[in-house]
Structures are given as structure tokens and as C-alpha cells.
Specification:
NXPE1 isoform 3, elongated, mainly alpha, transmembrane helix, two-stranded antiparallel ribbon
Length: 122
């Protein structure tokens, strides 16, 4: 009789372990689907956001030096920036305001087609 109860306990433990393992597997595969199906208001986004700061995706390896092409692009952009004159303003009333602006269509037509040029004077 003792061996029979021992066998039953062993089978019960084995079946319980199998069920728990199966449940963990199913939950890990369909975690978001499970919570949405159960309509629980448990959010995983908080954990995702908090781990972004703890474990950044950027590597800790220093940035590589710029290539010759990247240096050339940087030079061109700096030259373009120098060609645009600064436009400082002393008061807000001296700047362009949409409410005080007018738009005039130069050479208006009754009908326009795709590809036609539309000149507007602001």
C-alpha cells in the first residue's frame, strides 16, 4: 500500500510540474495577447521604458572618426551656413506675421493643369 501512495504522489508531482512548465511556456510565447485577452490593465511599457535607461542600446565603444566623405559633407554644410546672412530682430512687431501678410497670385488663370507654374507674391 505504501508503494501505491508513493507512486501516486510521484505522478501528481510529475503532472503538476508538466502543467506549470506548459503554462510558463504558453505565457512567455503570447504574453501581450494573454493580457489583452484577459483585459487586465497591467502594462509592460513601464518596464520597457525603465530598462531603456538602465541598459542603453548604444555601444560604449567610442565613436569612430569621420571618413573623408563625411568631412567633405561637413565642410560643404558649413560653407552653405556662412552664405546665409543672420537676420536678427529687435522686436516681434518687425518680424513677418501671417495675420498681417497678404498673398497675391501673379498671372491668375481660370484653370490650372498638373505641371503648370503658379507664382504667388507674399
Amino acid at each position: 500500500m505504501s508503494s501505491n501512495t508513493m507512486l501516486q504522489k510521484t505522478l501528481l508531482i510529475l503532472i503538476s510540474f508538466s502543467v506549470v512548465t506548459w503554462m510558463i511556456f504558453i505565457i512567455s510565447q503570447n504574453f501581450t495577447k494573454l493580457w489583452s485577452a484577459l483585459s487586465l490593465s497591467i502594462s509592460v511599457h513601464y518596464w520597457n521604458n525603465s530598462t531603456k535607461y538602465l541598459f542603453p542600446k548604444t555601444s560604449l565603444i567610442p565613436l569612430k572618426p569621420l571618413t573623408e566623405t563625411e568631412l567633405r559633407i561637413k565642410e560643404i554644410i558649413e560653407k552653405l551656413d556662412q552664405q546665409i546672412p543672420p537676420r536678427p530682430f529687435t522686436h516681434v512687431n518687425t518680424t513677418t506675421s501671417a495675420t498681417h501678410s497678404t498673398a497675391t497670385i501673379l498671372n491668375p488663370r481660370d484653370m490650372y493643369c498638373r505641371g503648370d507654374q503658379l507664382n504667388i507674391l507674399l
